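Listing 4. Sequential folding, example run.
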Amino acid sequence: MRVRIQVSVPLLLSDCTKGKTKFELEARTLQEALQLLVQEYPLLRVHLYTEQGEVRKHVLLYYNDDNIAWLEKLDIPLAAGDKLRVLQAVSGG
């Protein structure tokens, strides 16, 4: 069963999400939610993923409180109230 989850993206990427920084997606698993995110907002793909399909080094994707890079698998069943956050690492000097 699909559930609604909250998604947030940085203001810098809102031009890729029709001006929205917060919205909802309906999915069964985290993996499906990530696929739907770039399917519904295709302009995000180039900002989030490399040409090889890997998450870009300066991008952090958080599922609730966990960076998805720390997760062993992405086919985690979603529950109502779950959150997916897109963050961009910023560096400078």
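-- end of first protein; second protein begins --
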Amino acid sequence: MPQKKSADLSIQKPLAPVILLFGTQDYLIQLMKKNIIHEALPEDDLDFNLSRYDMFDVPLEQALEDAETVPFMGEKKVVVIENPFFLTAEKVKAKIEQHLPALERYLEHPSPDSILIISAPYEKLDRRKKAVKSLEKAAKMYELSQLTDSTLYRLMENVAGRFGAVYTRSGHDQLIASSGQDLARLAHEVEKCALYCGTDRPIDGEAVLEIGSRSLETNVFLLVDKVMKRRTAEALHLLHELVRMKEEPLKLLALLERQFRIVYQVSYYHNAGYTQNSIAGKIGIHPYVVKLAAEQAKLYKPEYLRGVLVRCTEADYRIKTGAGDKLLILELLIHKISA
């Protein structure tokens, strides 16, 4: 298997007779699948020449037989195989046992009248299996896992464009900080912003803050920010708000510690002369999140941040050993580190 690289979203033409879509970005897999079907079939042919088969419920041979039959009143047909668990090393309880030699035979001579799409939302395929080796030789493979920020930006720009809205870099950065990089969630937030802004107002950082729903991670980032600015009362108010939203104190502590660790790492690498993008690559977070953490890091010396991490570890131990009320331990921690 080739090394992981940023997902290639361009569709190679002419379409290969067998296409394998795999990786951890299910949103991208669905998007690519939709684009390939759109490229292969006219709108009028969808009802007659598009078939989908779920491998949890349907024999593999049935899908392959369909792929071998001629299209009905059209030039091409598309057959989609969903959930091909047999390509992985996972142990899955399925209703039927799939017969892989049938796939291997089909890959030797795929039908020229069909586009067989295999949709595999898995991180890894089992290269020990003959069927996977056959696919690597016969299929056009698209690995849809990692995304560069520029590709992510273009994707969300296209989502906004469907509504006639203008997507900006400041809006993108704020959405990443607020919602994370889960594609389905991010696309949903962009759609909300596009409907709100319409064609008259760009989707910028200010617009995102006006209407965007904040993620748990963003609320924790704000909690850390209030603690660092010694706004203890506001920090405790936000803490109680999160608890009222049924967030577990231990989970909040873990996220609090994670955010302080990010601020400490950003401070360390910044002092060592690394750029914002270099730090983002080393820590594995978005550059805009590095920028926000760098602003927080300016407020305190690394010794203070190390001390905070020690206090977080102590609080974690006390909660897990039942040494006191979980919420009270968290409240006392915030008092100590913001004093």
